[in-house]
């Protein structure tokens, strides 16, 4: 596996070890299913998983890099400010506001979907619970977030105005 995956990592040893570790971990988690496959099918599975793990790592690195760039840009902006920096509107939303806003969502389906999401459930799990497809769950969450933004805007702006005084 090291020889095959070495090409993905361009000879960077710690990257290679991490990638092999990820593949072996996934294999262990699916051991009962994998051991019933013949050797060729196991190799194909491992190759596909290795490729996907490598792509995930590339995406994560790109994402981490862009987040770091954004943080550096924000830091530079804050250093350039002359004390006139103003907190974001969301910083004026408190938990009670959020709970009240969730209760005021336009439909019980939106409310239930959002509450399940807040419990940390995946789209698939929410879909099972509500009888909807994951795509419908995603659309409902988008709509719920849009409504919550509108419901929370006024109390947050009011608090920001009060803070300025």
TrEMBL record:
Residue ranges annotated for the RNA polymerase sigma factor 70 region 4 type domain, each copy included: 97-148
Alphabetized SUPFAM superfamilies for the sequence: Sigma2 domain of RNA polymerase sigma factors, Sigma3 and sigma4 domains of RNA polymerase sigma factors
Keyword DNA-binding: yes
Keywords: DNA-binding, Sigma factor, Transcription, Transcription regulation
Secretion signal, residue range per the UniProt entry: none
RNA polymerase sigma-70 region domain location: 3-62
Domain of life: Bacteria
Sequence similarity: Belongs to the sigma-70 factor family. ECF subfamily.
Xref: NCBIfam families: sigma70-ECF (TIGR02937)
PANTHER family: RNA POLYMERASE ECF-TYPE SIGMA FACTO, RNA POLYMERASE SIGMA FACTOR HI_1459-RELATED
Protein name, UniProt field: Sigma-70 family RNA polymerase sigma factor
Protein species of origin: Pyxidicoccus parkwayensis
